[in-house]
Structure formats: structure tokens, C-alpha cells
Amino acid sequence: MSLPARNAVIALVITLAIIGSVIYAINYLDRKRVAQLNDLQTRLATDTLSIETQFALLEETSCANLSEGNTLSREMTDLGDRLAFAETQLGNDNDQVIQLRKQYTLVQIRDYLLTKRLAEACDLDPTVALYFYSNETGACDDCDRASYALSYLHETNPDLRVYSFDYNLDLGALKTLIAVEKVEPRFPAFVIDGVRTYGFTEVDEFKLNFPKNFFATTSTSTFTTPLRR
Amino acid sequence: MGGIEVLIYGLLFIGLYFEVFVLLTFLSGPARERRARPLSTRTPHVAMIVPCWNEEPTIKGNVESLLTLDYPEDRLEIIVVNDGSTDRSGEILDEAFADHPRVKIIHQLNGGKHAALNTGIEYAKDAELVGCLDADSYVEKSALREIISCFDDPRVAAATVAMSVHDPKKPLEVMQHVEYILGIALRHVMSAVNGIYVTPGPFSLYRRAIVLKVGGFRFGHQTEDMEMALRLQREGYWIENAPKARVYTKVPASVRGLIKQRTRWTSGFLRNVAFDYRGMIANPRFGVLGLMVLPLGFLAILGGIVLFGMLIFSIVDDVVQGYLVHRGIPFSYTFSQIPHEWFFIPLSVLSVLAIVSSAGIILFIIIGKRVSNTPAKLFTGILAYTLIFRLIAPLWLLRSLKDVALGTKRPWR
User: Fold this and answer.
1) pTM for the complete prediction?
2) Burial of B239 (0-12, 13-18, 19+ CB in 10 A)
3) Taking a contact as any Cβ pair under 8 Å apart, which residues of chain B between 338 and 377 contact chain A?
4) Which of A167, A185, B4, B80 is the most exposed place for a label (fewest CB within 10 A)?
5) Which residue of B has its CA nearest to A81?
6) B16 and B10 in contact (C-beta within 8 Å)?
7) CB contact under 8 A, A22 and B356
8) Any chain B CB within 8 A of the CB of A137?
């Protein structure tokens, strides 16, 4: 075999080996990401359970002792960010991502329900925004803008609690929530303090959907739970 | 996976494969032997031909650099062919060298560079080897002795040198300097497998008898050096390279000038290879040149245009989407959201392969500098070459493709 022919064959083998190594390394990183997400999910579930347990003990303690809220909020924000990134890396149709998204959605719904119960029991008045988006191609041109704006509003207004849901996620609890809140498949959809609105244009215009003077106050609540898409 | 992604992966695979092939060939025996090749003890009669057309600023220095060549005076003659210059080139030559015993000045009506070269070759009847040095180029003293040793092999019809940019100062010159150094590495490696398809104007050397045998220089779609190299290859000759024979050439300092020059080169490649020498493409008889270099030359042009189009689309899309998403939200918030953890590093198979491929190119630039001992500050040059030069290249690729498709002819300058 001539030198060029030999080099051509070896080059092919090496090139395939390089590409194979890169694919393996990227898959390894993705697996590590999913493992990290799983850890966070487990921790979050434990924290939620802790809050629920504290709530069950409310009769024997005071609302001021519910100190886990801020930690839970940070963890949910962190997990939401990581999950959103994992979706862009692995794809919306990745089985592991879908499974994590379902678990996360359940945690959000539980936290949402808990928030409502705590508000009644401890005489709190949190401002809650439910946000429904769609990942289907062409279904929601403004969802990226709405997600980013909600993240910004939560970051600058810790009193605002945002729960973000993939409308098309195949999850019984989510379907029930959608039915209870009577949310139509028009995106982006919001339920802010019980009032349904659809569509997103500008941040300033969107703020009008919130209680008057809400963005003028800066008090810090016990519980905050943001999530971006 | 969409069609565009398949195309990008395909181009990356071919690019990476070529890089690995080049690296293997660089490490192989024939390339190592060429790097270690001793200076020849032979001193055949050499005629250096300088075709000159309106080279007023550089022609005197050019001839003077030839006179400093380390070579027996009685074995080297310099023939300057003033090809109908309309500036003061002819007067400058006459004033400086009319009485010089080793310099012959020939004035003729403008006939083009190929005609000027043929005039010089015709005149150099005693020469075994004839060299061409563009009037905007300068040689190092040892260049001729370095390149002569390439002709110890009787199969060799021509030899090329290590060409880089003369006194690169402006950003565009620095970028071209890096590009030329990359060219040094590639030409050196390709010579080991007879894959050279162009014998550049700045100081290529030919066996006079073979040049005459194949019919002398032709117009060659304004790339007579490429046409001659392809003709020699088609006739079964070898084209060598002397990586330590250093030559410096002036390059365009403006984007406009660069686009004009590169359009001429690229359209010359397309016209020569696609029309006049298409029989060499994918022809196993021509080895690496036929199976790899020429097809990849086409692919590089088409791929460059496609990737450029996609990049522009992607940038415009990102800017528009970014504006829409961030509209109404302070910049301070946007910047505060940049993550710092490994988790958020947006690595993908595509991006990592692109990084590996770019690393390969940087490696060859370093190799080019090392094998030729070319002085260069590589860091800024590589950055500018990678981030800017490769992005503007599609401008002349597109222009060349359009010229070839529409049959447009442009003046030399």
C-alpha cells in the first residue's frame, strides 16, 4: 500500500475515533447533567415534604417558624434554570428531560397548593402567577419573551411567585390544574391572582395584569417560587 | 437531524479528515526527509525572470534582493521583462540596472504576465532552471540554494518556496501573514505526496526544458502559475517544495484590494480545474491531488459560502430574537444572568468538533512557522485570522462563483 493510501486509511480511523470520543464526552456530560438534576429533584421533593410537615404542625407552632421557604425558592429557581438548559441541550423530546419536567411540574403544583393553604392559615397575601407555555413548533411565538420577562419580574420582585407549566405535558395532575383554572390552549397563558389572561406584548403592559402598586413595593415574603421556561 | 445539520456535520467530518491526513503525512518519512534535506552542492545555471507591469514602488528593491542571493555570480542571471508598464517602472529599471552585468532588462508591449515569462524563458537559453519572482516580492539570501536541492530528483519539474508576507503591519496584512504561514505548512506536506496544484509567482523554480516541452506559460484565466502547475502534474511530473527557502511578498492592505486579488485566484482555480483540467478531478491516476486536493478545493469554496450564509442567518436571527426577548428589560439584569458553572457550558458534538478542527488549523500554522523559521507574532494573527479573515473570505468566494457562472472577466488590478 502506498504512503498516501495508508495515511488515508489511518486518517479515516483516527477521524472516526475523534468523532466517537467527542460524542462519548458530550453524552457523558449530559448524563452528569441529568444526574445533577435528579439530585436536585430529590432534594427539592424532600424540602417540599418538610414544608408540608411543618404546615401540618402549624397547630402546635407559629407561622413565623416556617423558615424553609427562601431555601426552597432558591432551589426551585436553580432547578428550573438547569432544567431549561438541559432541554436546550438534550431536546424537548428527550425521555429523561420529559420525566424530570413531569417531576418538577408535580413539585410546582404541590408548592402552589401549599402556598394557597399557608396564605389562608397564616394570613398571607402572596401574588401568584401561573404561566402556561407550549413547546410545539409555531404554537407560541411570544413564550420566550414571556418567560424571560417573568424571570426578570420575579428576580426584581421577590414577592411574586411564578409557576411555569408546559401546557402539553402528559401529566394527569397538570391536566387537572388546567381544567380547574379553565386555561385555554392559547399561548402564552397566565393566571394571575386567579384572573386569566392570554398573550404577551411588552413588560410594562404585562405589569398591568398584577395588583395595583404591586411593583412599587419591595417587601420580602416567606415563600417565593420562580421558574423560567 | 435536519438537512442543514447533516451538511454541517459532513463538512466538519471532511475537514477534520483532511487535517488528520495532513498531520499524518507531516509525520511520515517523506515529509521528514524533505525537512532534513541538505543544501545541494550543485550549482546549475539559473535565470531568474521578473515580469514587471507597473511595479514602480517595489521593482528596484525586488531586483536588488535577487542580486544578494547566495549563488555563484556566473551561474545566475536576472532577466527583468518590463511588460508595457505605464508608470515609471521602465525608467527606474534602466536607471538602476541598465549597465549591470548580471541584469538583463527587456522592454516589450504589454502581453500579460504569461507572455513576459515566456519572453524571459526564451531569452535564458543557457539556463537549466528558470525562476519566476513577482515584482512585488523579495527573497532571502539562502533561498536559491535551498530550492536547488529539490531538483536532485529528476522527476521534479518545479519547486515552490515558503512564502510569507513582507513586513506585515496593518491588521489585514497580519491576517494574511498567518494565512500564508498556514500555506507554508500545507504546501510542505502536500509536496511529500505530490499534491501541489499551484507554483506561486513569488519565486517558483522550473526546469526550463520541461516548461518548453509542455508549451510554455499560458494565460490560464489570469492564474498562469496554477495552470502551469496543473499542466505539469497532468504530464506526470512532480512539484516539490523547499520549506526553508524564504520569500516575502507584498499583499493587499485594503479589503477591496484583497477581494479583487482573491477573486482572481479563486475564479482562476474554478475555471482551470472545472473546465480545462476537469479530467484530473477524482482521477486516481493523480493520487492525492486528484482524489483529495482538487475535490476539496471545490468543497472548500462551496462549504465556505454555505457556512457563511448560515452564519449570517444565525447572527441576524439571534440579534432579532435577542432584541425581542430582552426588549424592555434592563441590560444589567441580562448580564447578571450569565451562568458560571460547568453545567451551563453549551457544549455540543458540533461545537466541540468545530473547536477540534480550529485547533488543527492553529497547529498547522505553528508547524508552518516552525518548519520555515518565518518570523511572526502568531497570537494576535491567529485570533484575527480565525475571527475576521475567515469570515470575510466568503465575499470573494461568492464573487468568484458569480464571475464564473456569468462568464465575467475582470482586469488584473
Assistant:
1) 0.84
2) buried
3) 339, 343-344, 346-349, 352-353, 356
4) B4
5) B344
6) no
7) yes
8) no
Strand order from edge to edge, sheet including B238-249:
B103-108, B76-83, B46-52, B129-133, B202-207, B156-165, B238-249, B137-139
The minimum CA-CA distance between B20 and chain A, rounded to whole Å, is 5
Shortest alpha-carbon distance between residue B6 and chain A (Å) = 14
Query: In A, which residues are within 8 Å of B355 by CB distance?
Result: none
Profile chain B (413 residues) by mean pLDDT over runs of 10 residues.
Answer: 81 95 97 92 94 91 92 94 94 94 94 94 95 87 93 95 94 94 97 96 94 95 94 97 94 93 94 94 96 94 88 89 86 78 86 93 96 90 86 90 89 68
In this predicted structure, what is the pLDDT of residue A117? Answer: 81
Confidence of residue A67 (pLDDT cuts 50, 70, 90): low
Q: What is the DSSP string of B28-41?
A: SHHHHHHHTPPPPS
SS3 for A147-216 is HHHHHHHHHHCCCEEEEEEECCCCCHHHHHHHHHHCCCCCCCEEEECCEEEECCCCHHHHHCCCCCCHHH
Contacts of B326 in chain A (CB under 8 A): 148
| pLDDT on residue B239 | 97
Q: How many CB pairs under 8 A join A and B?
A: 82
Percentage of residues in chain A with pLDDT exceeding 90?
38
pLDDT greater than 50 at residue A220: no
What residues in B contact A18, CB-CB < 8 Å?
16, 20, 353, 356
Question: What CA–CA distance (Å, rounded) separates B105 from B74?
Answer: 17
CB contact A155 to B (< 8 Å): yes
Is the Cβ of A26 closer than 8 Å to some Cβ of chain B?
yes
User: Is the preceding peptide bond at A188 cis, omega within 30 degrees of 0?
Assistant: yes
DSSP B148: H
Distance to chain B for A95, nearest Cα, Å: 17
Question: Is the Cβ–Cβ distance between B281 and B291 less than 8 Å?
Answer: no
Query: DSSP characters for B205-228?
Result: EEEHHHHHHTT----GGG-HHHHH
**Interface subset of A 43-82, CB within 8 angstroms of B:** 81-82
Q: Assign A226 a pLDDT band (cuts: 50, 70, 90).
A: very low
- Chain-centre distance of CA A169, in angstroms? 13
